[in-house]
Design brief:
Layout (H helix, E strand, L loop, with lengths): L1 E11 L5 E11 L3 E5 L6 H9 L6 E6 L6 E4 L11 H11 L4 H14 L15 H13 L5 E5 L7 H18 L2 E6 L2 H7 L2 E5 L6 E6 L14 H20 L1
Parallel strand pairs: 3-7, 3-8, 5-6, 6-7
Antiparallel strand pairs: 1-2, 1-4, 8-9
Helix pairs in contact: 2-3, 2-4, 3-4, 6-7
């Protein structure tokens, strides 16, 4: 079932930068879509438009049912440094008027899911980079969003932490039944995570190739050695190179 459709979306900023031009994208419920493309090609802008943080100049963005709750994870964890993990995750519920007593079971559940239950009282300065990102993901998930938007959330992490969070993210999606739209520069990350990879052209961004990845078995460490994974990496790499050459 289609969740939302973007048709002929264009976006130009006040400084004259044309970020998106004639972007078409249809998102089905339960998909994991990676937006892959060169820096500055409008991927993050597309996320902000979907989230309602910015407005299109032209084209249509249509929800094919009631607009769902949306979680947004930014590239930086953006945690409040003056309070602990529990209260950082509590913030979206507090803004909705949920009492602390009512919120506590929900917060502890989501902290357990991201592996931070024992760090609920820790402050951001006491956490590693990967743990800060887990806290940011927990904050986005505490409202149980049907749609999770992620803007290069693992880009600044070391490779081992990044691989671990990739696996954990897929487990969370399966458990919670979310639709995920994920911005990345990494061919390998997109091939591992996605059910579909949408490759963007250079600015103004539009989708120049859509690559269906398919189930291809469980997404564990062994999956990275399969021919299906390697073929997807090759297709995505070629499409990305074409996008760079067109620039």
């Amino acid at each position: 079932m289609s969740l939302l459709s973007l048709k002929q979306i264009s976006k130009t900023f006040a400084n004259g930068t044309r970020a998106l031009g004639q972007l078409d994208l249809s998102v089905a419920r339960g998909e994991f879509i990676s937006l892959l493309g060169p820096s500055g090609c409008g991927k993050s802008t597309a996320l902000r438009l979907i989230a309602g943080l910015d407005q299109t100049d032209s084209g249509s963005l249509t929800w094919n049912e009631a607009r769902p709750d949306i979680g947004f994870v930014f590239q930086d964890p953006t945690l409040m440094p003056w309070t602990n993990v529990f209260d950082n995750v509590y913030l979206p519920l507090r803004l909705k008027g949920v009492t602390r007593t009512e919120a506590t079971p929900k917060i502890m559940d989501v902290l357990t899911r991201v592996g931070l239950r024992d760090f609920a009282q820790s402050f951001p300065r006491e956490l590693s980079g990967g743990m800060k990102m887990r806290a940011s993901i927990a904050r986005a998930l505490v409202l149980r969003p049907a749609l999770l938007l992620m803007d290069e959330p693992f880009a600044a992490l070391d490779e081992i932490t990044r691989l671990k969070l990739n696996r954990d993210l897929l487990e969370l999606q399966a458990e919670l039944g979310m639709t995920v739209i994920f911005v990345t520069h990494s061919v390998y990350e997109s091939a591992y995570l996605s059910s579909r990879i949408c490759v963007f052209s250079h600015r103004p961004g539009r989708i120049i190739e859509s690559i269906d990845v398919g189930p291809s078995g469980p997404r564990d460490d062994a999956f990275r050695l399969t021919s299906a994974y390697l073929e997807t990496c090759q297709r995505a790499s070629t499409a990305l190179q074409n996008a760079m050459e067109r620039a």
